[in-house]
Every structure is written in structure tokens, then in C-alpha cells.
What does this fold into?
Amino acid sequence: MRVPFNDLKRHHDALQPELGRKIQETIDQCAFIRGPEVDKFETEFAALVGVARCISCANGTDALYIGMRALGIQPGDEVITTAHTWISTSETITQTGARVVFCDTDTDTFTLDASQIESKITPKTRGIIAVHLYGQPADLGPILEIARRHKLWVIEDCAQAHLATYNGQQIGTFSDLATFSFYPGKNLGAMGDAGGIVTNRSDLADWMVNFSRHGGKGNHVIEGMNSRMDGIQGAVLRVKLPHLPRWTQRRQQLAARYNELLAGVGDLQLPHVAPGRTHVYHLYVIKTAQRDALRAHLTKENIETVLNYPKAVPFYPAYQYLGHQPSDFPNAFANQNQILSLPIFPEMEERELLHVIDSIKSFFKAS
Ligand SMILES: *Cc1c(COP(=O)(O)O)cnc(C)c1O
It folds into this structure.
């Protein structure tokens, strides 16, 4: 049996024929850039998250850039973010002309270690980007408290965490603004690039509408950029949106099954969910000292796994200029050699999950 890491073919087949019909409708209307489906998606997504506004854009990376520009970031400013994330979080800071300041993570949740943030604050610090990595919220309580005390803004990068909660409240609702990705493989994915920013602040929302569409239609109030959602992506996302709560539950069920059947196997450390948080398992990430050997074994068993990510961000060549050492981010550095993402997707079948479990058990029995 072959177990894919994710299977978008199954995901989309299950939504036919509605998906095909809505796409054809959009083609018939020639509503290729934005259009009625995108307008409706923005309203529906804002309602689902529980915020006043959603401003769609071309992808989750642009969402971060647009968000920082809305908050008035200037060249020379500093923004603190996590050492363990997808590079979008940090590359957009640099794009604005600001400087990336990395902070280490908590060993068990892989999210920002709030207790280390204050040591990174300087007179140039303007904001903090918290990433809800793998689907688990970052520790928003202390992060927001530090931000308030130092008059910093906070952006939540929610690209991996649609519908996750912190102390019973949905992520994306805590900070000045929050960003989402609808990249095809995300928990809510389009059929191409797509993203969005959510906020309760109408001043920021209005500014972002203009900025992402060339600074305003008909009257260019400011110089902006071109970052709009395609009509077809809006149509696809509207077909998918009502299913997101069910897909999220299914991910949580699969994770619970992994947790149950992998408990006590070898030296495995299973995902730790901190008190007060719910995890939506965009990724199910285990840790083991024998990561590379286990991964090779699973590949031989036809089980696809992924490293999210092969290195902590400060250790990529792109950030060599910052001159960081492993001892600057000991937790993120230790985790990068131990993490392994196992297959998890809403359409995954029990027999597939059991094949993954059996293969992991046979590896640890033999080793
Ligand atoms: C996917 C992702 C993004 C960027 O999203 P795109 O839509 O691919 O541009 C940003 N941050 C994190 C943490 C992500 O996982």
C-alpha cells in the first residue's frame, strides 16, 4: 500500500460536480480577477473566523507584506518573529525594508518562546509576528501582554491554523490583523495561490483594500501593489468553506488515533498541545533521535513523509548575513534534526493510518 502525504485528487473528487459547476459559472461570467465569488468569500470567511473584515489577496505571503505595510512599517524598523517557520514570515519583513529579528521556540509546541521575546526588543522594534505553526496557536496571552507593554503591534500568521483556538477564542481574532494562506495544501486550500488578511480595524481594512489594488480604483490615493484573488479561486474556496469544520474534526480524529497507537513506541515524542489551545493538525509532527533512519524506512514502505522544515530559518543561506550560531536558537536547532511530518489529510483512511503505525512499530522493533 502506498500512503501519500496528502491527496488533493481525493479531496477534489469528493466535491464534484459542484466544484466543476462553480468554476464553469465563473468562466461563463468572465469574472477572472475578484468578482462576485471573491466578494462573497470575503464576507463568509470573516464570519467564520469571527472578525469584521477579510481582505483577500494573491497569497499568504503577500498577506503578511500588505499587513505590515498597513501597520506603517518603515525601513530600518525591526520585527521579531520565530526561528521555526516557513520563510514567508521572515522574507516579507525584509521586503518592507525592516530587519528580521529571530527568536527561539518552545521545544514542545514549536511556537515562539514568549519568555525570550523581551530580550530581543530594541528601540527600533515595531512588532511581533506570531506563527501558529503546524496548526497549534502560539502562546498569545504573554505575547500580547508584552506587545501592549512595549507598544508593539502583533500579526498572527494563521497560514497553518484555520479554526484553531486559544482559551476558547478563535485565532486570527486576537491581534491587530492576522493573515491566512489558501495555498492548495493548506487546511482550506484554493486551486492555485490565494490568501487573505482579517482584522476588526476598519481603518486598516480600508487601507489594505486600496493598497492591494494599485492604491485605489479610478483614484490612486497611494502607490499600491497588485495582489488580488482570482475569481476561480474565490469560487473554489466558497465550495470548500462549509466543509472546513468537518475536515478540521477529521484531522483531529486522525491525530488522536496516531497519539493513541504511537504512545510509548521507541523514543517518539508525539505532538504536545499546550493547555488552553486546540490544534488543527495542518501537520502531524513527531520527534525522534532516529529521524533520518525512520524516514528512510517509511519511504521503503511507500509512506510519504516531509520535513517541515529541513532547517530552522536563521540557518538557511539566505540569513547567513545575520551570522547566527546554533547556540542562538538551541531549541529550534535541536528540533530541526528530529522532526518528521507524517501523512495527515481529511480523506486519509484508517487502513492507511494503520499502515503508517505498523511501519513505525516495525522500525523500532528492529532497531
Ligand atoms: C504557507 C505559509 C505562508 C505563505 O502562504 P502562501 O500562500 O504560500 O504564500 C506563510 N506562513 C506560513 C507559516 C505558511 O505555512
